[in-house]
Amino acid sequence: MNTSILQMLKQSSLLKVTPVFLAVAFTVALGTQSALATKLTGAPLPYERETKEFNSNNSVVIPPSASRFQRRLDYREEEKLKKQQEAEAAKKAELDKLRAIEDEKKAQAQQVENAKQYIQMAIDANNSAVAFGKQGRWNEAIVAHEKAVQYDPSNKQFKINLSAARTAYGQQRLSQHDYAGAAHLFRQALAAANDNSMAAKNLSEALKKQGIDPGSVDQRLELAEKFMASNDLVGASIEIQQCMALEQSARVYQKMGDLCVRYGQVTNAMAYYRQAIVKDADFGPAHRQLAFLQMSKNDFTAAAASLRKAVICDSKDVAAGQALVELWRKQVAQNPLLAENHLGLAGAMQLTGDFAGAEAEYRRLEALDPRNPGLESGRASLTRAYQHAKAEKHRLAAETLFSQGLRREALGEINQAVMLEPRNAKYQYLMGECLEGIGDYAAANKAYLTCVLIDPENNREAAARMKEMQKAAGMSGADVAKMSGQIGNQLSNQMNAAPQQMQQQALQQRQMQAQQMQQQQFAQQPPGSFRVAQPEEQPQQLQQPDPSRKSMYEGGSQRPAFNPQAMNFRTHDESQQAQADLEQERQQQARQAAMQAQQAQAQQAAQQQAAAQQNAAPSTNDALSQVSVLESQRDYQGAATLLKQMCEADVQNPELHHRLATNLLNLGQIVEAIPEFRIASALKPTMKAYSDDLARAMAIHKRSLMSDKSDSSVSGSK
Question: CB within 8 A of 207, min separation 6: which ones?
Fold first, then answer.
């Protein structure tokens, strides 16, 4: 027991001594390390109190710690910030405005200063030019005058001085026999001042020296074309202006329009082309050039009409014909299912002489719309075109033979042309020349008289030739009047017989085409298959076209029947007969008696016609009133039926055709209404309402075709 107690005491003493020993050992170790370490010479670290001197101005600001959430401004702070921004923007705008005003004032002041400088420079240049002119140094004088005009273009005196200098220099060149150079200077003088009469007079003198007639519009227009080809637009404009002073004709206006096109003045060019058409409605180049400008403005409807008129006026205008066909080809390419496009392309091809292409388009039209009202009239006009082309071949052959002195052979050819077209005045005149060449004066006189009866205004040469042969044959006025009546009756009978012949030809042609189509369909059927014709597939009765009425492709409408009794004209000059001998005076008296009788017959016929019109007017008015009643009752079918009868009785009344088209449109018969709208527009092209209604109906028809196509595609997809 004692032993265990001793051991416990020992352990407890060690526990007490060990911490003391460890502390002493740690202290000794630290002292040894500090004795071995390097002594620090830096300033001591600051205390915590020194970094928190809040009253010091150099206090360190600790930045706020970054946070994910930013504090949003309240509405008062936002309004305040917005007002500050608006105030700053207004202040900046005001400063910019003041600055712009200052800049504008400076620019105006600079412009005024520059204008003063330019005016002074122009005066100096003009003074130096005058000095050069006094010394005879015209090149330097002209250059100085041009600078004066350039510096001050509003000064008219400077332009007059420039024109005078160019005129003086041109006179010097004219005296030196440099006629071309002198003419160029005179044109430049007129360009500077168009009222320089001295320059115009000297220009005429220079042209005479060059062998050019200054009073000939043809020669001066040829000069203008040469200047335009060489890009001398100033010279071309002067020549065209001089032509306009000589002759205000359609060709001069057309050349002025071409010049405006070269200058880029499209509006002025169109105005000049329209003036040319007013001067001469049958001047083809003006229609063609106007069409080209309309195409540049994407007015294709007006362009097609102008091109068609250009080709009708001049069938040899290749540029207009190609443009017309190309225009319709594009329309067909854009909408190949529209029948009207094929009809227009067929007409364009027919006008340009592509009869095979026109017939192909008519077949496509028939496949798309067999009941199209324009199909029959188009094919009838194509038949007439074939016939006219055949007659033209005979005419060309006759002219060639006649020029070679083969009169009888030429007579045989022109006789074939006259048989095809008996109312062609040119054919009759050439036939008269051939008959006169072989010595058959009676027949030649008859041919000349026929020519005058067909077109008395444009066949003065035929009247003169007939007058000479009447003198040689000693024919009296009664004989001439009797022959006129006989020829008139013959022409009338020929025109009455012509429709039947044309109808027979058209009917035969359609029957042949139908047989060919049936053969093709039978050949395409598989062997052993049979097809029974349905009732609706039976051939319909063909409408008999009236060949005396020209279609829209031939550039005209229905012409009235020839009536020689209603014509009153002279085929000779009575003043010359009054100076003849007694025998000729007797002939004149007899001729006057015949003419009086003819006038009396013409007056009687006119009175009868007026009475017939008066009698027919109430019936027409009654019919129109009945149409109005039917339209008010919404009986459009009855109104259309009545209007069709009225249109057959009065074909040339555009109002009836337009009203019929309106009723057909109300019935939903768009295909039948479009030709009536087209006829009304053709009969009265100045009525804009007709053309607008035509365009509207065609647009409706186009939309209906497109909707039908889309419906069929949808049903097919289903």
Answer: 183, 213, 214
470-487 pLDDT, tens per residue?
A: 665 555 444 444 444 444
Does an H or E element contain 679, and which? Answer: helix 670-683
* pLDDT the model gives residue 597: 62
In a domain, 94, yes or no: no
Contacting residues for 626 by C-beta, under 8 A, at least 6 apart:
642
**What's the domain range around 360?**
248-371
Domain of residue 666, CATH code: 1.25.40.10
Is the model's pLDDT at 578 over the cut of 90? no
Give first-to-last CA distance, the chain, whole Å. Answer: 119
Taking the whole predicted model, whether its pTM rises above 0.85 is answered as: no
Q: Are residues 472 and 428 in the same domain?
A: yes
Using one digit for the tens of pLDDT, what is the confidence trace for 507-566? 555 555 544 444 444 344 433 333 333 333 333 333 344 444 444 444 443 333 333 333
Bridge partners for 549 per DSSP: 558
Backbone angles phi, psi at 232, to 5 degrees: -95, 80
* CA proximity to 259, closest of 298, 229, 279: 229
* Phi, psi (deg, nearest 5) at residue 549: -95, 120
E strand or H helix that includes residue 312: helix 300-313
Residue type, 380: A
What is the DSSP code string of 137-161?
A: -HHHHHHHHHHHHHH-TT-HHHHHH
User: Distance between CA atoms of 672 and 664, rounded to whole angstroms?
Assistant: 7
The verdict on 285 and 355 lying in the same domain is yes
Longest dimension (CA), the chain: 207
Q: How far is 163 from 146, CA to CA, in rounded Å?
A: 10
- Looking at the domain assignment, is residue 317 inside a domain? yes
Number of domains forming the structure of the chain: 3
What pairs with residue 558 in β-bridges?
Answer: 549
Please name which of 474, 420, 416, 402 lies closest in space to residue 445, comparing C-alpha atoms.
474
CB 224 within 8 A of CB 236: yes
Same domain, residue pair 280 and 340: yes
What lies within 8 Å, CB to CB, of 315 at 6+ separation is: 321, 351, 353
Q: Any idea what DSSP says for residue 537?
A: G
Q: b or e along 222-234 (b: 16 or more beta carbons within 10 Å of the residue's beta carbon)? A: ebbeebbeeebee
Long-range contacts of 459-464 (CB under 8 A, 24+ apart): 459/425, 459/429, 461/429, 462/425, 462/428, 462/429, 462/432, 463/571, 463/572
Q: Which residue has the tokens 């005066």?
A: 123
Q: Are 130 and 163 in contact (CB under 8 A)?
A: no
Which tokens sit at 703? Answer: 């939309």
Can you tell me whether residue 558 is helix, strand or coil? Answer: strand
